[in-house]
Design brief:
alpha+beta; Alpha-Beta Plaits; 4 domains; six-stranded antiparallel sheet; five-stranded antiparallel sheet; 10 helices; about 20% helix; globular; mRNA processing
């Protein structure tokens, strides 16, 4: 799967804030390391603080050039090594800002030169406020323990999710989550005050999910945390031998996603696998949804290991992803979308893995093991597929099309299930790829599940993904 557009905007070896209009696409070869990074696909209302926050975990940010009209930015790190660490990390862990994947790559610029326009003055002010190079490192942080309050808790936030977020700034030693005064809170301990200070500078005021779950971070008066149990409410990563506690719930497993409840239940303090009440499932939709369908759909956002549709409650399913990042990515992109006339609700599950049926026990084919599937999109580290993760859209990207297959062939194929094709376009320079626009996002999701890996003959199997473009 090739990127539709993977080129930076470049004028010379130094980027200048005066020359936004002169930027031209430059087809480039393999990425050459540079301490200047090109960041693409930013939300239109992105702030300077959020862009700088992408770089702070890896070192000092020395300059910033915002191109908001192009949904892009250039970030200059203090060293090439810091930039390489940042690109390496984000090539395996896709940064998500407000449900939108953001792409980070090396720029051809060797340095950034910015002007005194109001735009750049805001960027420089944000740099002075946030960059660790402007923090007096001779003054010790008040504590290595942070107190985290999550405001506007519209979606569940788990201990594992917080660990994943805060571990970008240092090793998380211990963490405790609790509810106090009807607020979801956490205490989190780093090995040193510098890590705590960097995390607070970068994350305070940021949203975990789009327009909700806002982090309010302060230094705790505690100097250390005393954790007695390792479970979903507390964890001591230096003491894996601690018990889970007699009456404590099982540890939430971060790589599990539960799908197919009727509607999201908002405001819960922790993950819920099911709604308290559910509507009777439409018989047609429960028959159409198979483990293979879920494998294909969730496989757009990560490698699916196992799928189980519940035997006694076929409107619910368990989908096991290969790691926590992919589970969070699938949940943030697919939750709330319609499928066969119903809204899909996705939360983290309390199950540690999907159990396969015992030998000799039939479950009507409702449980499938895909751990060795050749259809996994993200097996190879740094795969191009990481750069092509987009939310569901009415337009689909098709690839691996053999020369003998025409536009009419593909339009007939995608219409054969009863869906309506609104537009179609082959890529001008590469007829192995095309865009096809369905009449709705729901139809596009269903078409992707049905026709991804469809045999087109000549040893070509169709590859289908959601597209960021429209026709």
């Amino acid at each position: 799967f090739s990127s539709v557009s993977n080129v930076p905007y470049i004028m010379s070896t130094a980027a200048n804030g005066n020359d936004n209009k002169k930027f031209k696409g430059d087809v480039r070869g393999p990425s050459v390391p540079s301490r200047v990074l090109h960041i693409r696909k930013l939300p239109s209302d992105i702030t300077e603080t959020e862009v700088i926050g992408l770089g702070l975990p890896f070192g000092d940010v020395t300059n910033l050039l915002m191109l908001k009209a192009k949904n892009q930015a250039f970030l200059e790190m203090n060293s090439e090594e810091a930039a390489q660490n940042m690109v390496g990390y984000y090539s395996t862990v896709m940064p998500i800002i407000r449900h939108q994947p953001v792409f980070v790559q090396f720029s051809n610029h060797k340095e950034l030169k910015t002007d005194n326009s109001p735009n750049q003055e805001r960027a420089q002010a944000a740099l002075r406020a946030l960059s660790t190079s402007h923090v007096d490192t001779t003054v010790a942080a008040p504590s290595s323990v942070l107190r985290v309050v999550v405001d506007n808790l519209a979606y569940p936030v788990t201990l594992d999710a917080l660990c994943q977020i805060f571990s970008k700034f240092g090793t998380v030693l211990r963490i405790i989550v609790f509810t106090k005064n009807s607020q979801f809170q956490a205490l989190l301990q780093y090995p040193d005050g510098a890590s705590a200070q960097a995390a607070k500078l970068s994350l305070d005021g940021q949203n975990i999910y789009n327009s909700c779950c806002t982090l309010r971070i302060s230094f705790s008066k505690l100097t250390s945390l005393n954790v007695k149990y390792n479970n979903e409410k507390s964890r001591d990563f230096t003491r894996p031998d601690l018990p889970s506690g007699d009456s404590q719930p099982a540890i939430e497993h971060p790589a599990m996603a539960a799908a197919f409840s009727k509607e999201p239940r908002l405001g819960a303090a922790g993950p819920r696998r099911e709604c308290d009440r559910q509507e009777p499932v439409d018989e047609k939709s429960s028959c159409l949804v198979t483990p293979h369908c879920l494998f294909i759909l969730f496989g757009v956002y990560g490698d699916v290991m196992r799928v189980k549709i519940l035997f006694n409650n076929k409107e619910n399913a368990l989908v096991q992803m290969s790691d926590r990042t992919q589970a969070q990515l699938a949940m943030s992109h697919l939750n709330g979308y319609r499928l066969y006339g119903r809204n899909v609700r996705i939360t983290l599950s309390k199950h540690t893995s999907v159990q396969l049926p015992r030998e000799g026990h039939e479950d009507q084919g409702l449980t499938k093991n895909y751990s060795n599937s050749p259809l996994h999109r993200f097996k190879k580290p740094g795969s191009k597929n990481y750069s092509n993760i987009f939310p569901p859209s009415a337009t689909l990207h098709l690839s691996n099309i053999p020369p003998s297959v025409s536009e009419e062939d593909l339009k007939m194929l995608f219409s054969s299930s009863g869906a309506v094709v609104k537009a179609f376009k082959f890529f001008q320079k590469d007829h192995k790829m095309a865009l096809i626009q369905m009449s709705s996002v729901e139809e596009a999701i269903e078409s992707l599940m049905e026709f991804h890996n469809h045999d087109l003959g000549e040893n070509h199997h169709l590859r289908v993904s959601f597209s960021k473009s429209s026709i």
